[in-house]
Model the fold of this input.
Amino acid sequence: MINIEFPDDLISLSLYNVFNSRKDDKKFIKYAKDWNAKIVLHIEPFYPVTVIFDGSNINFERKEYPNPDMKVKIHINTMLDIANDRLNPFFAIEEGHMEIEGLGEDSGKIMRFYNIFVVSMQMVAQEPNVNYYEINKNTR
Amino acid sequence: MTAIKQRNVFEKISKDKVYSKLVEIFGSDYVTDKKVDLYPYSQDMTENKPHMPDFVVIPENKEQLIELVKFCNEYSIPIVPYTTGNNVGGLTIPDYGGIVVDFGKKMNKILHINENMMFALLEPGVTFGQLKKHLDENFPSLRYSFPNAPPYSGVVGNALLSGMTNLGAKIGSMADSINGLEVITFDGSVARIGSCFYGNEKAEDDSWWCRYPMPDLMGLFVNFQGMTGLVTKCAVQLWPKEPIEKPQLVVFFGLTDLGPFLREVGRADIVNDVAAFSVEVAKMEVGIPEPVRYPGEPLYTAVMPISAKTENQMNAKLEILNGIIEKLNKEGTDIHLIDYNEFAKLFGLKALNIYNLPSQILSLHEYSGLTWFGAYAPSHIFEELIEKTDELYRKHGVPPFNYLKIMKGGHYGIFRPIFRFKKFTDQEKIFKLLEEIADVCIDLGCIPYKTPSWLTAKLRKKINPGWISLFEKIKHCMDPNNIFNPGRWNT
Amino acid sequence: MVEIDENIFGKEVLEMAFDRCIKCSTCKYSYKDFEKMCPSGEKFLFESYWASGRIRIIRGVLNGDLEWTKDLIDPIFACTTCGACMDACQAPHADYIVEMIEALRELAVKNIGPAENQEFLVTRCEDSCNPYGDPNSDNADLKKEYDLPDKAEWVYFIGCTSNYRQKSIRDSTLRFLKKVGIDFTLIDEHCCTSPMIRTGQLSIVDEYMKYNADQIKKTGATKVITSCAGCYKTLAKDFERFGTNIEFEIYHSLELVKNLLDEKKIEFKSEYNKTVTYHDPCHLGRHMGIYELPRAIYKQIPGLNFVEMKRNRNFAWCCGAGGGVKIGYPDWALEISKERIEEAKETGATVITSTCPFCKTNLFDSAAHYNFDFEVLDLMEILDQIEINILN
Done:
């Protein structure tokens, strides 16, 4: 299991929701655990957050860490397009709709980023059940 | 300890005799004078002072109520109508004791739906959840609307008190959606108001189709908080349910960006409703228990239900909406549009609670108290209202929980600072803030609705004497012995 | 804020009544479906008979607005504690509403006593260790009959209703456990104390819980199985809540059945050609979150035509027996059950089944009282009627 900090700002909370749905998912754990990286995600028009992968933990900081391992800038509507399969993420990078720094040639990093962020968002966005009460019976 | 204010009613007639009469009218199972049963009716969620009723009755039909009214008028016994007690104004607290009439438990039938002329004929106890369920199951092409309130809130009460719902931008105050009423006046006579007014006996079910064009007696019962008679039936307009729905979320990064947006969108006639919240409310709604606004977060968000008959019509509406935002942003605002369903999936499905019934803002129900300064507001002062109340919130160390709407095609707005609080620890602090906000907003021209008596006392100082005089004449004419919810509007 | 006696077990939840609940009335109807689901509110109607009204009564008795008179008995005790209000409520205190009502009852018992006849639940236990007042069975005879050891991996906790009233459920379960080769034994049981907790009569709760825990410990068992939803909830949740530490896992019999089916250790061979509808016991469903397991079992029984009642799972209408209502308000208990049976009739079912002997008791009593032609059977009784193959 991955432990995800419950944040109190909007953007971190959205990431929490996305990751939390997969915290027991073996594939997610495989990519997220022990990544030990700091990823800055700037979802425009909102503010940048840094997602900190530390062992089995994921934490959030409401700021842009200096010298992160990766930095991603994307507009919220572009992110929703990717999440809802209206836009291919690699095409988005190519066309400049998603700016990524620090990806390099490291295929491991690419795979982690893709599986943790993109796949998770797609899974959450395309989940057909929107009944909050059914999905979250143990929460209020 | 709840206070007991009496009007010496029980010097004219003993409580025992009143009890016997009530049992005769309603049956012993539907009358109570037990303190334990009266107690929940003596108070509500707001800051308004509790007061015990003397009796609670649960009526089943109009005939019982006619007898009740005649009896109470003879002995000047107060009658206070109650459906669910969910009004945020203390309006069902019996300030002078008397008899609380609980319509919610048995006089809650949906009497008739006319699909052609699109109206629903209801008893006063019908709730939003009940009406929506009935329409979804039996008349899927029609809709009513619902407020950001629990599904167990009364439709008729909401309409009679100028409540608003998720059709606010389209139709405005729900009072405007009333086609007809059946009322019992102080002497026990029954009047039908609206197009149903033909005929001596019961009106035909299909006759409740319009409020006009006869002299408009409806106004004698709208916003009178039950002071002029007992409403026993109400016909409300229904609307066609459009098949395409694409709710939108708008985020505002400038404190006063919301004002111009609401004014432009209102008059554009493209959305069903705009429910704008300070971001603290939005954060509460997605699960952050004690929300704080952080730098970089939007200051306000607005949820806008948009529906259309066809995809082309929807696309055209969205094009206009995008155009409005683009124009405003060129003029210096910082406003962004996001698909609401998609946003909710990523940011928290709980956010969908606002959009669809049950459409409560759940976080506002967390504690034991809820109150507001809920007001109709001229839309040109939105910016000033936001700025001035923001200062007051900061002064009192309370997160700004503001709620705004634009109504009826942009003709007027709603401004509603709303507070949740722990009744037994925080009430004094919240009331101080509430009062200061009320003073500022009233000075700027806001007019509160569902107004509690402490607030109507403030309004009276500002209202022109001619209105006060006319109001009191009407009240006296309609209720010479002041039996109908006495104390409201300081009568 | 008021001071609450430190000796009141439910002190913490009583304090919640002051900081929570705006009486939004969401507790009155099932959330989203907006169906009737509160038996006491629907019967007595006044606000005091709904969850939010009871929370106000808590405030009133603690802050002195309400004096302890006999008038308070009905609003406090005429409630089956079915938990439908907990399911509907969307506020943070939702999960504690039934505990708040139980705590209010604890206060009431100290001041005015419980509802009529409910005191017998305790006085009969003082003589016989069970609320029925039947001569206590230490289950030694049953151990002999079924050739059970003194020590085993499992203890079958029969529960008073199965042991003294619904013996067919007990016997069906015993036969099943033997058939499938479970290493189990029985103990000398005292009442699990569920009836006492639900009616606020806590005087024997501590003693009985410790006694039962000790008896189980003596067998060396690490697992306890019961076929009673009330015992299940009490053992699984209330023992720890009341400070009795347990070192064993708790299972309802249907969990064992489901496990055996999933692990392909048993299969249902013969057919049960009837139309069956399932009543969700409140203590298993709303209180413990178990809805799908029983359904999965019924659907694997060959020939069984499974149909759902309109109000099912967390929206299920209570059978009417719980919360001390069966003994305190017997006529009303039957009325509540009648509504459930009428709902079952609408499905076309001829059998209404459940996984709680107390539900079975009240549904059966109601069917008989109102002349409904209905079979009322527990899951274990249905399984007892069909052939089961042991696979490995």
In short: The longest helix of chain B spans residues 311-330. The two ends of chain B are 25 Å apart (CA to CA). Chain B has 16 helices and 23 strands.
